[in-house]
Specification:
By secondary structure, the protein is mainly α. It has twelve helices and no strands.
Length: 413
C-alpha cells in the first residue's frame, strides 16, 4: 500500500505557498457579463453629479460659465468612464472590489457637492476628490493584479503615471484662483483626454498595445447605455420638479408635454436601434479595445453633453413658455438637441460605417430652425425642436422596422 502524508505530517519548515485569488472577471469568448447591482449603486452618485452640472450651467449661463461647466462635465464623465473600464476587468462581486467602489462613491459624493462652487471656494475639494478617484482606483487595480497579468500591469503603470502627472496639475489648480485655476484645469483635462489617443505613451515604456485594451463588449455597451439613462432621467427630474413649482396654466402644461416628448424622442433615437446594435457589434469583434475607446469613451460624452444641455433648455422652457427666445433658449433648446444628434450619428457611424440619412436631415432641420428662434416663443421653439426629434426617431423606426441592426445590406435610414 502506498504511503501518503496527511496534512498533519507537514512540518512548519515547508509551509504551502499562499494562493493569491484573482479579482478579475472570468472571461468567456464573446460572453456578456451582467451589470452588477453594486455598479448600479455606484452610478447613483453620478445621478447627483449630472444634476449638479445642469444646475450650475443654468446658474452661470455666460460664456465663462459654460466653459467652466464644460470642464466639470468632462471631469465627471472621465472619472465615470474609467471606472467602467476597470469594472469591465475586475469582478464587482468580489469584496475588495466592492470596497473600492464604496470608497469611490464617498469621494464621488464630495466631488459632486463641490461642483457648484468648484471655481469659487471649493476648488481644492473638487480637485482632491477627483485625483483620489482617478489615481486611487488605477493604483488599486495595479496592486491587486496577479503577476501573470503582464499586459494589464504594464498598461496601468502607464495610466497611473499619466493620472499622477495630471493630478498634480488638478491640485495646483485647486490651490490657485480665478483664471489660473481655469487654465491649469484645462491643461490637466487635455493631458487626460490625450492619454488614450496616444495609448498612454510613457518615456522608457512606450505605448500600450491594443491587445491589452480588450474588454467584454456587451458589458461596456450596457454600462454606457445606463449612463444615457442616468442623463435622461436627470432631464425628466428637472422637468417634473420645475413643472411642480410652476402655475399650471395652459402654456405651462403644453411646455411640460413638449419637454417630455423631446426626452422620449431622444430615448427612441438612441435605444430603439443604436444601443442594441452597438452591443452586438462590439461583442462580435475580435479586438474590442479601439471601438470601446472611440465609441464608448469619447463619442458617448457628446451624447451625454447633449442631454445635459437639453435639460437646461427644458427648465428654461418651463420657466417662461410664452416669453422671448433669446441666446439662452437657443443654446438650451436647439443646441442640446443638436449636440445629441451629432453624438448619436457619430456613434452609429462607428457601428454601421455610414451616416444615417434620418439623422443628417434632423441635424440640418435643427440648424435651419435657429434663425426662427427670435420670432418664436420658447413654447413654439421647443415644440419645433421636439417635432424634429420625433421625425428622426419615427423615420429611423420605419426604415429599419424589418431589418436587423447589423445587417450590412441595410438601406439608408
Amino acid at each position: 500500500m502506498r504511503w501518503r502524508c496527511k496534512p498533519a505530517c507537514r512540518t512548519p519548515d515547508y509551509p504551502m505557498p499562499p494562493v493569491k485569488r484573482s479579482l478579475l472577471r472570468v472571461k468567456s469568448p464573446h460572453g456578456h457579463h451582467r451589470v452588477t447591482f453594486v455598479e448600479l449603486f455606484f452610478d447613483l452618485v453620478f445621478v447627483f453629479a449630472i444634476t449638479q452640472i445642469s444646475h450650475t450651467m443654468l446658474a452661470h449661463f455666460t460664456p465663462l460659465g459654460i466653459l467652466q461647466t464644460a470642464i466639470l462635465m468632462l471631469a465627471v464623465w472621465w472619472v465615470w468612464v474609467f471606472t467602467s473600464w476597470i469594472t469591465n476587468w475586475l469582478d464587482p462581486d468580489k469584496t475588495p472590489v466592492r470596497v473600492m467602489l464604496f470608497g469611490l462613491m464617498l469621494a464621488g459624493l464630495l466631488l459632486s457637492t463641490s461642483i457648484p462652487k468648484a471655481f469659487e471656494s471649493r476648488g481644492l475639494a473638487f480637485a482632491l476628490a477627483y485625483v483620489v478617484m482617478q489615481v486611487g482606483r488605477s493604483a488599486f487595480f495595479l496592486v491587486t493584479l496577479p503577476k501573470s497579468e503582464t499586459g494589464h500591469r504594464s498598461n496601468f503603470v502607464r495610466i497611473v503615471a499619466w493620472f499622477t502627472t495630471s493630478g498634480a496639475i488638478w491640485i495646483a489648480g485647486g490651490l490657485a484662483e480665478g483664471q489660473a485655476r481655469l487654465a491649469l484645469w484645462i491643461v490637466a483635462l487635455g493631458i487626460e483626454y490625450l492619454g488614450p489617443l496616444v495609448r498612454f505613451w510613457t518615456p522608457g515604456l512606450g505605448a500600450t498595445v491594443y491587445r491589452d485594451w480588450q474588454v467584454e463588449g456587451g458589458h461596456m455597451a450596457e454600462r454606457a447605455a445606463l449612463f444615457i439613462i442616468i442623463a435622461l432621467g436627470e432631464s425628466i427630474v428637472i422637468t417634473g420638479a420645475t413643472f411642480s413649482e410652476a402655475s399650471w396654466t395652459a402654456p405651462a402644461i403644453a411646455a411640460f408635454v413638449i419637454a417630455m416628448l423631446g426626452s422620449i424622442a431622444m430615448w427612441c433615437i438612441y435605444f430603439h436601434i443604436g444601443a442594441e446594435a452597438g452591443s452586438e457589434h462590439i461583442s462580435e469583434m475580435e479586438e474590442t479595445g479601439p471601438l470601446a475607446r472611440l465609441a464608448y469613451t469619447y463619442l458617448h460624452l457628446i451624447i451625454v453633453a447633449g442631454i445635459v444641455v437639453s435639460a437646461v433648455g427644458d427648465e428654461l422652457l418651463l420657466a417662461h413658455p410664452d416669453g422671448h427666445s433669446g441666446v439662452k433658449e437657443i443654446i438650451g433648446i436647439v443646441g442640446g438637441a443638436l449636440i445629441y444628434l451629432v453624438g448619436v450619428i457619430l456613434f452609429k457611424h462607428t457601428i454601421h460605417g455610414r451616416f444615417q440619412l434620418s439623422h443628417l436631415v434632423g441635424i440640418a432641420l435643427l440648424v435651419l430652425s435657429i434663425p426662427l428662434a427670435p420670432n418664436l416663443s420658447p413654447l413654439a421653439f421647443g415644440a419645433l425642436t421636439s417635432v424634429i426629434l420625433m421625425i428622426v426617431a419615427g423615420w429611423e423606426a420605419w426604415s429599419l422596422r424589418s431589418k436587423t441592426p447589423i445587417d450590412p445590406e441595410i438601406e439608408k435610414s
